[in-house]
Amino acid sequence: MIARILFFLLFPAGLLAQTGISVDQLKVHAQILSDDKMEGRGIGTNGLVIAENYIKTEFATAGLATLNREQPYQHKLEAFVFARNEVHLTINEDKVFYRNVKLQSFPGKSSYTFDMLPLESDSFTSNEIATVSLSSKTRDIGFQLMNLRDKALKKGAGGIIINFQSKAHYLAQAGLYDVRTASQKQLIARSVKSGSDFQVLYTYGVKTLDAGQVKLQLPSETMPMNNVVGVVEGSEFPDEYIVIGAHFDHDGIIQKKIYNGANDNASGSSILIELAKYFAQPEHQPKHSMVFVAFNAEERGLIGSKLFYGDWDKVNRPIKMMLNLDMVGRLDTYQDRYEAFCIADNDTKALAIDVSKNSKFRPDWSRNSVKHPKRYYMRSDHYPFLSRGIPCLSILGSDSDKHYHQPSDDFKRLDFKGMKVVADYALAVLEAVDGQLD
């Protein structure tokens, strides 16, 4: 844990001075990280380990310090249990089998039993359910169901079970579980009373659910995972930290199709590497220490960033600001400027707006609210920091990306001119923050 290993092990500085963010290097990183050989950087794949090692090598070559002498550049995450191949779901002793399952992690357990209660009229209205089922665009359904889940949680339920019409693998995010079979005729929701961490389960082809018991059995294995962490020590305030993060995992292989995640998030990871290389140069050394983190398991519920913050918080080292990069390879344009949704606290927002006045990047603040139904505020690795009062800026792409969580999210569809604009903007924000902090 960071509490036991927080010290710097310095490596030789990179051989060549870097004067700015290199588009050519962004292309190299993104192409490697989104190659088919990476197997979609899914949890449990060899490709995810290869991607981890690639980022470690880039950090070492750039001359970043490490927090871990025994395992350089590695922040070990707790072992989690993940479902593999087949899940057994039993409803009132009626067993149903599901294959090709994509699930959130279930820490340390392989069997769950829940008491199931009938749907209460004051928990959900039939109109709410019909709206989700019939009127929503596919990519919006998950966010509406999260709102329904939250209503159930406030009623004391452990979650809801949804007999769901649409087939959209990317709904398994932000604490939602996606279990799929062949077909479905109607949508049924039921509150689930439980003391466990179960939240929401999507099913297909399950008959109307009456009050009773639900049992979920997961054939499981533990999968140790790592964040990749490198540090540039500050020249004046080495014990004060700015964290720069981007997740490098993605969806892996689903139904024999590789989800390469070029935009989500080889793009952000590529910029992260280049920012680390820039600040590792002696002539660009920041005043405050900068911690560069390639987060793992973001797609499984921000696991990497949650555990990183939890371990870091134990050692009581002040984080002055956090910058997050996610899905920055295909952006919208506005009056000849690139724009993306941004999330920030009020003070960081003011600084970000000021920096953008001299940039080709335009922050879009329309999603910068915890109350926004699409939940950008809590959907990426900035949230474990922002929710604990750490100043943050998160750059999060746009709603218009039709390749979002699709096998078509490939290297050839990245806009490197836009990525360069984002990288330069992120660099300017970091330099402004580093210069203003005292």
Task: Sum this structure up briefly.
With 438 residues, the chain is α/β, with parallel strands linked by helices.
Can you tell me about this structure?
With 438 residues, this protein is an alpha/beta fold. It folds into 2 domains: 2-79 and 224-436, Zn peptidases (Aminopeptidase), CATH 3.40.630.10; 81-221, no CATH class. The protein is 29% helix and 25% strand. It has 10 helices and 21 strands. It has helices at residues 2-5, 23-33, 46-62, 126-135, 138-154, 262-279, 303-314, 346-356, 383-386, 416-436; strands at 74-76, 80-83, 86-91, 94-99, 111-116, 159-163, 176-178, 188-193, 200-203, 212-217, 220-223, 226-232, 237-247, 252-254, 257-259, 288-295, 319-325, 332-334, 337-344, 361-364, 392-395. The strands form 4 sheets. Strands 1, 12, 13, 16, 17, 18, 19, 20 and 21 form a 9-stranded mixed β-sheet that branches. It is globular. Mean pLDDT is 76; it is low at 1-18, 97-109, 117-139 and 162-211.
How does the overall form come out from the CA principal axes? globular
What is the CATH topology of the largest domain? Aminopeptidase
- The termini sit apart by 29 Å
Kindly provide the radius of gyration, computed on alpha-carbon positions and rounded to a whole number of angstroms. 22 Å
Tally the structural domains.
Answer: 2
Number of helices: 10
Strand count: 21
CATH architecture classification of the largest domain:
3-Layer(aba) Sandwich
Residue windows where pLDDT falls under 50 for at least 5 positions: 1-18, 97-109, 117-139, 162-211
Strand content: 25-35%
Class of the largest domain, according to the CATH hierarchy? Alpha Beta
Q: What's the helical proportion of residues?
A: 25-40%
Mean pLDDT over the residues:
76
Report on the biggest sheet.
9 strands, mixed
> CATH superfamily of the largest domain, please?
Zn peptidases
Structural class: alpha/beta
